[in-house]
Design goal:
CATH class of the largest domain: Alpha Beta
Largest sheet: 7 strands, mixed
CATH topology of the largest domain: Rossmann fold
Distance between the termini: 20 Å
Number of strands: 17
CATH architecture of the largest domain: 3-Layer(aba) Sandwich
Mean pLDDT: 93
Radius of gyration: 21 Å
Number of domains: 2
Helix content: 10-25%
Low-confidence stretches: none
Number of helices: 9
Bound molecules: NADP nicotinamide-adenine-dinucleotide phosphate
CATH superfamily of the largest domain: NAD(P)-binding Rossmann-like Domain
């Protein structure tokens, strides 16, 4: 095989506030020859997710390292019997065009989560990183297992047209509850209602969010699926019903704040309002809220959840929208744009065909 040249994006500096293109650097390197037990992988898809900003990019020790992230790659040379040329690997090889893998590689630095062969019968390869991967499972876990949605609930979800939010709203409808989204702009709100079947969607950028949200939830809120924090959470808090559940999935409105701009986290805000944590046995009175993070491999029902989601997609009950940018060079712009709300659906980079 001819010399393979890799291009990868490394962290150049830890961003202060919103990331700038100068915080990243494209590096070119020759790939070493594939050794016995290894395989050469060509990246097809990279997923961009908000957690990369709140964790990896804030750590000075990561300067000079390749940006992390979930990938789908094709095996183009294999010197291990466990993987064949042409197999698709769901892995965690980050923002680069090529990588060397071994069968023992893991995803998410989680030893319980080995790289996986993508089962193409579930859906297109990109979905392995979205609705049939981390973000789809997060919505499923947070709404069904953490918040325990039931028929008749009013569920409000923020960042409603995004990767997690779009799934939360549709799962809400599948379970007989009322779905109200909060999203930035009329096009995203129209998509949630017209395409995804939400009952209502409030454009927080139109101004007057507290009044508009109150009008959209005349019976109050039973579940608030928290993706955003900040002013959106402030509008939600007065509308929470007694006994409501608030799975805290993330708070993307805080991730680009400088240290001086920091606001209380959603958990701190809810505690400050005197809301109670529900006991493990569900016995506490009053409000309940939960912080949660998921890693699919830790949860026994993850595999079943992904098959269920795949089935609903095939039946037409569940739709998804991806926001695809082309080529590794588009990663930085797409990432900065996602944190500004310029994505419309799950943010994905198509690195190669
Ligand atoms: N716990 C977990 O395991 C887990 C897993 C996945 C994701 N998450 C969290 O879930 C949340 C959503 O992630 P995602 O992957 O689905 O991202 P996403 O919604 O696809 O993209 C981020 C969206 O956040 C919204 N946003 C950005 N700044 C905002 C602001 N100041 N106020 C209101 N909305 C703002 C934008 O939508 P608009 O245009 O509508 O403003 C943007 O499109 C994030 O907080 C993320 O960290 C947690």
């Amino acid at each position: 095989m001819n010399q393979v040249v890799n291009r990868k994006i490394v962290l150049n500096s830890t961003p202060r506030g919103e990331p700038q293109p100068s915080d990243f650097e494209m590096v070119t390197e020759d790939m070493a020859p594939v050794q016995e037990g290894q395989m050469l992988l060509r990246t097809k898809w990279i997923t961009l997710d908000p957690y990369m900003r709140s964790g990896f990019m804030n750590a000075a020790e990561n300067v000079g390292k390749t940006l992390i992230g979930g990938t789908v790659s094709e095996v183009i040379e294999s010197r291990t019997s466990q993987w064949q040329t042409g197999d698709l690997v769901v892995g965690y090889y980050g923002w680069q065009e090529y990588s060397i893998g071994i069968p023992d590689d893991i995803q998410w630095n989680n030893p319980g989560m080995p790289i996986q062969k993508w089962d193409g019968s579930l859906g297109p390869a990109s979905t392995a990183l979205g609705i049939l991967g981390m973000t789809g499972y997060t919505a499923y876990e947070g709404l069904l297992n953490v918040a325990k949605v039931k028929a008749g609930d009013t569920v409000v979800v923020s960042a409603a047209s995004g990767a997690v939010g779009q799934v939360v709203g549709q799962l809400t409808k599948i379970h007989g509850a009322r779905a109200v989204g909060i999203a930035g702009g009329p096009a995203k709100c129209a998509f949630c209602i017209d395409e995804l079947g939400f009952d209502a969607c409030v454009d927080y950028k139109a101004g007057n969010l507290p009044a508009a949200l109150a009008e959209a939830v005349p019976g109050g809120i039973d579940i608030y699926f928290e993706n955003v924090g900040g002013d959106v959470l402030e509008a939600v808090i007065p509308l929470l019903n007694s006994g409501s559940r608030v799975p805290i999935c993330g708070f993307v409105a805080h991730y680009n704040l400088t240290q001086e701009q920091q606001r209380p986290t959603p958990l701190q805000r809810l505690r400050a309002e005197g809301l109670q944590v529900l006991g493990k046995d569900g016995s506490s009175e009053g409000f309940a809220f939960f912080a949660f993070a998921q890693l699919s491999a830790k949860h026994p029902d993850a595999e079943e959840a992904l098959r269920t989601l795949s089935g609903w997609i095939k039946e037409g009950k569940l739709k998804y929208r991806e926001s695809v940018s082309e080529g590794l060079d588009s990663c930085v712009t797409a990432f900065i744009g996602m944190l500004r709300g310029e994505n419309f659906g799950k943010t994905m980079i198509r690195v190669s065909d």
